[in-house]
Amino acid sequence: MKREKISEAVGNISIYHIQEAGRYAATKKPARGFKGVWGKTAVAAVVVCAISVCFCIPSVAFSVEGFYKDIVRWWDGAVVGGEYQNATQEIQIKASQAVVEDGKWMIPLSVTFLAMGDKEPYIYLAGGEAALGDFRIIDRSGTEIYASTGQQETAGVLEDGKTLLKQPVEMETLAKGDEYRLVVESIYGLQKAEQPLKMEGHWECEFTAGW
Fold it and tell me: Is the pTM of this model over 0.85?
């Protein structure tokens, strides 16, 4: 974007827009069934987002910031929860060679929250746990051979913004020595006395099935 266009875009954003965002945050009703830490941070994110527009016009097209979204019950429009979207650049996932344990393949995963001490909602996850959400496994031909949705049972304790997981899959899913791609679409943040927080993004990592 040329400098003249940037100046014009910034000039068209008045204090009115920021005030409107503030009034919205002040009047918005708390989400039912979405109380505690996650509920508080969702409202704060509305104001932060509005203010950011004023100073980040040049990088709007390349924004990688995550944001909150209400979960709305379809039959009556009631807000029943919340989730955090666009977390791809804020979380890092690495996979290691899958191994066989207790009659199943285990895919070792390292999950790192890059903004653990600096950004909501990660600052509230310290001392909690994390688990995979929706994920798929794709073979070398590009064929999807396995998929699972929702919060996975295996969780790992977060220490210094990191956790190690071993995600199980059935033996018939993988073949020894073959290469695969793990595609993760969501991760869950787990904290005592709080509802699980779904964090959506898109992560891909390669791994092999060990001998």
Answer: no
What single DSSP character describes residue 141?
Answer: T
User: pLDDT tens digits, residue range 92-119?
Assistant: 999 999 999 999 999 999 999 998 777 8
SS3 202: strand
Q: Which amino acid is at 97?
A: Q
- Beta pairing, strands 79-85 & 197-208: parallel
Q: Which two tokens stand for residue 76?
A: 């009556």
């069934």: which residue's tokens?
33
Displacement of CA 63 from its chain's centroid (Å): 15
pLDDT at 39: 55
CB count in 10 Å sphere of residue 21: 17
Residue range 59-96, pLDDT digits in tens = 333 356 776 677 677 777 776 667 899 999 999 999 99
Q: What is the DSSP string of 81-131?
A: EEEEE--GGGEEEEE--BEEETTEEEEEEEEEETTTTTSTTGGGTTTSEEE
Name which residue leads in pLDDT, 185 or 11: 185
Task: Give dist(CA 28, CA 44) in Å, integer.
Answer: 11
Task: Give all strands (DSSP E) within the chain, no chain letters.
Answer: 67-72, 79-85, 91-95, 99-101, 104-113, 129-132, 135-139, 144-148, 155-157, 162-170, 179-190, 197-208
Phi–psi pair at 98, nearest 5 degrees: -70, 145
Q: Residue-wise over 109-121: b if at least 16 C-beta within 10 A, else e?
A: bebbbebbeeebb
Residue whose pair of structure tokens reads 């959400």 in the numeric block: 133
